[in-house]
Structure formats: structure tokens, C-alpha cells
Design brief:
The protein has 165 residues and is α+β, with helices and mostly antiparallel strands. The strands form three sheets. Strands 1-4-5 form a three-stranded antiparallel beta sheet, with no helix packed on it. Helix 3 runs antiparallel to helix 4.
């Protein structure tokens, strides 16, 4: 069957949804939505290469993202807030807002994180994990004299114990 009419096209845009497994890029902080319950990233958010952002004055406004799995869930991507100096405003969503974001299927959703502040008032991201992994991380933090991180890990262990996990 022949094609009738013309096919309109546009230049290829590198977005979160078309990253390949193993690809690493950078997201602008404005494309990241942080709530108390989850972190959301729109799948059509533009992903920049280091070459594209390295000379920008606001290079610190970009957060590394890496595709580690084949799916389109928070488990298939890794975002690295560890080197970010930016604070994120925490949106206080009503339950309906959170439900809408979850149902949209247009967002990566990360539930496995903890929000905190360091001594400069900067928000830190601490991935959640099993109690055994947290205990191991706590031991390393204490050995490295990272007392703020150690306190956060200890609090997470205590919370998981109370929840019976």
C-alpha cells in the first residue's frame, strides 16, 4: 500500500524516554519534581550531553541521569543528586495530585529516597535499602567520619525497625 501525503518530521531530540541502557546524560533541575512521597521526572524531558552543558554558567543546574534498565520506571534509571549544590523545593501535594502523577504513565517515579538537609541547609538524597545494606553503609560512613550521613542512616534503620521491615 503506497503512502499518501507527506510525512512531517522534526529533528531528533534526546529525551529520557529514548535513552538506551547504559546511556548517561544530564537533566535540568526544573525537570525534576520533588514531593515528600516521590520524585517525578517527565519521560519527555530533554537529556543533555556533558558537551552541551560544560560551558554553561549554570552547569550546576543539571543532574546526571543514567539508564540502567530496559523499562520506563524509577527502577530503570539512576539520578545522582550527590554532587548537586541546589536545593529543591518540596511540593506539598494533596493526595489527588500524587495520584494524578502516578496514573499519568508519563513520568518516572522514584519512591526509594529520603529527603534531608545538610549543615548548609542543602537537601540531600539518600537512597533507601534493606536494613543490612543500611548497617553496612552506616559502618562506612562512621569510618569516613561522615557523621551527618551516619545520623541519617541510623534514623532510617530505626524507622525500618519500627515498621517491621
Amino acid at each position: 500500500m503506497p503512502i499518501i501525503g507527506k510525512i512531517n518530521s522534526m529533528p531528533y531530540e534526546y529525551r529520557v524516554e529514548n535513552m538506551k541502557v547504559g546511556d548517561t546524560g544530564y537533566l535540568h533541575i526544573d525537570d525534576i519534581i520533588v514531593t515528600k512521597k516521590a520524585v517525578f521526572i517527565d519521560l519527555i524531558s530533554m537529556v543533555e550531553s556533558y558537551e552541551d552543558i560544560k560551558d554553561l554558567e549554570e552547569v550546576s543546574d543539571y543532574i546526571p541521569i543514567k539508564r540502567i534498565g530496559k523499562g520506563l520506571t524509577g527502577d530503570d534509571f539512576e539520578i545522582d543528586f550527590s554532587k548537586s549544590d541546589d536545593c529543591f523545593s518540596i511540593i506539598m501535594p494533596k493526595d489527588t495530585y500524587l495520584a494524578l502523577m502516578e496514573e499519568s504513565e508519563n513520568h518516572l517515579i522514584f519512591f526509594d529516597f529520603k529527603i534531608g538537609k545538610n549543615s548548609q541547609g542543602k537537601i540531600l538524597n539518600l537512597p533507601c535499602s534493606s536494613i543490612d545494606q543500611l548497617r553496612s553503609d552506616l559502618k562506612i560512613a562512621l569510618e569516613n567520619e561522615e557523621y551527618e550521613k551516619a545520623a541519617m542512616l541510623r534514623n532510617k534503620i530505626d524507622l525500618l525497625k519500627k515498621e517491621g521491615k
